[in-house]
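Box 3.1 A note on notation
Throughout this textbook, protein chains are presented in two layers. The first layer is the amino acid sequence; the second is a token string describing backbone geometry. Keep the layers aligned when reading.
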Amino acid sequence: MKLRYILIFSFFNLLILSACSELKDDDHYSQTDSHIVSQELKIVDMDSRHYMESRPDLSMMDKLFQDQGIYGELTQKGQLSTLLVVTNDHFVQPQENPQFVTRSHVSDISISPANLEDGTRLMMWHGKYVNVSMDAQGLEGNIVDHVKFNNGAVREVVKTTSGYIYIISDMIQTPTSLRDFIDGLPDEYSIFRDMVKASGGKEFDRQNSKAIGVNEQGNTVYDSVFIYTNTFFDAVGFDMNSESLTATMLLPSNQVIDDALADVHKRIELWQAGDANLGHRNPQQGNSVWLGCNDSIIRQWILEAAFYSKRYTAAEIQTADVQDLKSIYGKQWRTNIQQVDVQNPMELSNGIVYNVTKLHIPNNVVIYRLKEFFYYYENCTAEQKEAFYKVANLNFKSCDTEVTAWTPWSGVWPLHEDRVLRFDKPSGIPDDDGFQLDYTPIRLSDITSGTASQFLIPPGTYRLAMGAVQNAGLDIVCSILVDGNVVATSPVRSWGTSTTYHYDRGTTLPNRHPEGYDSGYVREQSGNSKADNYHTDGGMMIEEVEIPNLNGDGSAVPIVIRLRCANWAGKTNVKLCHWCLRPTANNY
């Protein structure tokens, strides 16, 4: 909300119609005395230095400017400026680094009240910004007591012939930069602090460090300058030292992180239903059940989700409605689930920090994907085959390896085979009778013995993808059933000549590979042209299916995947490779 002043001059006199005026930096006034336009603005026909000298109640600030050579620099520059000053009763003599403190009150930018907006940043001579903030009345156009420069509330505004003087309630306190703030975090934040510091470092800049003497050992002593290096942040163009940065950081304490980890382990135990073999995952492990992540994965997510390249307000960072923010690394932060202290933000020179009071690690971080294979039929007992593979118009034929185990990068990624379950069309069945399979997902609970058991699915939303065999020539409709009720159904999906549903080589889905797998990088490093075909989710069947919280406690539940084909269309068999549930953004 810009503050506006309207001055109307007549031939005979000056009539003030309003406390508002469209002031510009190049306005000039011929008054020889101070003229009070309103309580919001005073206009004087003298430059800022002489006005400061004319005010006894500004004498201490005036002396500080004189002692630090401010007026001489202003004269040398010969340009308009803005001064932030306090009256003597609010003046505090700087004991340390008086030059830095003094220069935090002077800017080369002459900013009029008309150009003040909530969130404006004014670069000062000490190389850092001050932030302009307004309360509700300030947004309505009232300056005095309702507009702040950092911690100092505006008490008077004076327009001089060389710029503006804002008399404020307190001397400017310059917040530290984001980098310095993190370095100075106390031990209660040591987990987060050390994660950030471990992601980069600092190097001595000899070229820009001045030699100031020699120590007793004969070594040169420098007024040291350090360069911070951090490939973690540099990779996304996020410079924590830059004063041009406008950042938000979400800060979790050690206790908050420990509580979040404990909650993750509790969820995993609930999903495991007593089966520890469903536990922590390794991004490059050979099996497909990647359910529970280890602590290092969680901590990496915390680090990557903590930094934002935009300065968010309290109303934006904590909401009642579903809102997602994306961090500098594209991590999803849901503002109606995560809890932050919006009452006590910490202002920095290049950003703002909110303390996280309760941290939730999203389900779609804890669960990477759930993928298993139809050929486990051969590992089932007779009772399990009957219970887990309910068929109509299908005869079991065989389980066959159609693509032998392979890896796109030997020694780096594990071998993976395309093994399928084949059903044949029973003799004498008309094509238009079609077929149906009600499949209860199973897994190998003991890989060594090949024992199969039911696979329970944690509640939440997922994308369902599948793989079969190319040239199947079948039109398939897929449904998901929970507790006997259909919760999602796909449109007709044609398993035709394209490779979309061919084994697990589907290339049409985004985010379709094993955790940590970058097909472009693997292709570049290994030279394998088939790197993109490795162990994918398959082809889209249902874009989003919600598995309900059937038991009310977040525990995993059994599901049924129903495959229906209305017409055999002259085909005689169907070969099924795998199914894959990948959590969506809404599985939070």
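The radius of gyration is 34 Å. The first strand starts at residue 7 and ends at 9.
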